[in-house]
Amino acid sequence: MYQALYRKYRPSTFKDVVGQDVIIQTLKNAIQNNKLTHAYLFAGPRGTGKTSTAKILAKTINCKNLNNFEPCNECDSCIQINNKQTTDIIEIDAASNNGVDEIRELKSKVNLVPSNSKYKVYIIDEVHMLSPGAFNALLKTLEEPPQYIIFILATTEPHKIPATILSRCQRFDFKKISTKKIVENLNKIVSNENIIIENEALEEIAILSQGGMRDSISLLDQAISYCPENISCQDIHDINGTIGNEEMKKIIDVILDKKIAQLLKIFDDLDDKGKNLIKLVEELVLYLRNILIYQVAPNYFEETEKKIYIQMSEKIEPEILLKYIKKFSKTIYDMKNSDNEKITLEINLIEMSNIEVAASVQIEESVEKRQENKISVENLQSEKQPEIIEKKSENIKINIPLKTEEENIKNKQIEEIKRIRINNTLSSFNKKELLQYKEKLEQIKKHLFDEIYSQWVSLIFDGELKASGKNHLIFVYKDIPMESLFNQNWNIIEEILEDTYHEKIKVVATNIEEWNQIKQEFNSKTKKYEWKEEPVLNTSSPNENKKEEKNKIETIFQDIIEYS
Q1: Closest alpha carbon to 38 in 163, 136, 117, 146
Q2: To the nearest whole percent, how much of the chain has pLDDT over 90?
Q3: CA 436, CA 505: separation in Å to the nearest integer?
Q4: Largest CA distance in the chain
Q5: Predicted model pTM
Q6: Is the C-alpha dihedral spanning 221, 223, 227, 232 positive or negative?
Q7: Mean pLDDT of 480-500
Q8: How far apart are CA 415 and CA 412, in angstroms?
Q9: Which of 98, 241, 456, 520 could disulfide-link 275, Cβ–Cβ 3.0 to 4.6 Å?
Q10: What is the pLDDT of residue 85?
Q11: What pLDDT score was predicted for residue 193?
Q12: What is the CA radius of gyration of the chain?
């Protein structure tokens, strides 16, 4: 029967363990100085050598003829361990043996002395799966075991283990293995197995395995089955549902050209071919990240890698790259938490395209406005405007008040209504209603296709819904400008919500710093919240002429105006 490569090449000695040099050296020193502890915790990502190291440690400390910390494989203990005939090394899968009864059975056997070894070793894999009762049953045994007992607990999720257990173990955190070391180990395997494979294919396998040696060997095994002779990088992409550099360049070119229909068609074709859309976007983020790194630190890459990114780096500015990386990273998160990842991807692509198109239109309009500056300035001067106009070289500087009296009044009214709405929401805070609104919030994305509402839908999703009560919602933003933009246009936000939910909803926004203070007061019950009627926002303007003059100036000069 064929033996899987990850089993065939599983580490059997300390020198076979890849990428965990510090941990291996520490364990060797403990053996040499006779400072073994009664309980170890091996924590880290999957496929990084936790269970293998536990088995090697158990075999090493029981070997009767150690040679430079390597088991002899000839003594009775080594032979029995190799043939899986020993009763002194007990492996327990906590995922399927996680109850109190199993741990009580373990406790009843702990007092039995080893039959043919120096130590009796219990290896409990995926220990975080134990039930609370099982952890409690294990606690006393773990604290004061007999001198010949050693526990080795292995887990991928140490945060799920009770602190009382953690404090009784010596903890080792296994790290993800570097791409370079994974490639080196894969080269040894393909050499031993006489496999012909491109070096680029090995590097792609190492990248896709995300630091897990077992995953990389399993993917290599799969590639051998798919293409027994001369494995190429494209074969790896076909197996894993990803795409190559040339296809990646094509996608980025289409994004830069803002050809949204063509972009959607590309992803339709990739989806029809069975490609993994989430992995595709992750690969896209990694590719954009590499272009950005090449722009700021070209020597970071090998000469062969530079050729991949040099052409694309000339097409995209670093600021645009950062924008795309952030947007696609958010898209990955949205896709992983969506019932339909393809629609989520398409919505994010359309939203991204709309933002870029709007920005380009604004730039074009700004250029046109600048061309009319001379005529506009002359007209304004002839009308003897009260504002001061200064012309230096080709730049025009206009000093006008940042806020009119009417705007100050309106902002004060908004602040007053904001406080009332926050108060009213928290006076009737309903967690169940909050969860319901959060679940329904995705429905708002249908308005991304609407030219009028698309930017406001984006604004909604830039914040986070934090509280709900009596059809009142509180959104929290990271910065004050976003909060201000929301509150000044909450009537539009409420229109979108009413169209989506078919009910009247009042909204308000605050910033994260202010929200933390509100939350502290609410949780500590140091402030009393009672329902209040909010006043009607006064939108009338008593000085309409001045407002019209200001609007006229802003329309003419747009972004060249400097407010004092």
Answers
A1: 146
A2: 7
A3: 14
A4: 107
A5: 0.58
A6: negative
A7: 86
A8: 5
A9: 241
A10: 81
A11: 86
A12: 32
Sign of CA dihedral 68, 72, 75, 79: positive
486: how many CB neighbours lie within 10 A of its CB? 22
Q: Which amino acid is at 27?
A: L
> Any idea where the domains of the chain sit in the sequence?
5-173, 179-240, 245-355, 372-403+543-563, 405-524
HEC profile of 411-426: HHHHHHHHHHHHHHHH
Cβ contacts of 244 within 8 Å, gap of 6 or more: 233, 234, 237
Is pLDDT of 491 > 80? yes
151: its two tokens: 């526990």
**Contact present, 282 and 243 (Cβ < 8 Å):** no
Nearest to 42 by CA among 54, 31, 24, 30: 54
Strands across the sheet containing 464-469: 464-469, 472-477, 506-511
Tokens of 254: 């289409």
Instruction: Please give the order of strands across the beta sheet that includes 562-563.
Output: 388-392, 395-400, 562-563
Q: Which CATH class is domain 405-524?
A: alpha beta
Distance CA 151, CA 145 (A): 9
Tens digit of pLDDT for each residue in 87-132? 888 888 887 877 788 788 887 788 788 888 888 898 988 889 888 8
Strand order across the beta sheet in which 170-173 lies: 89-93, 120-125, 149-155, 39-43, 170-173
Is 1.20.272.10 the CATH number for 245-355?
yes
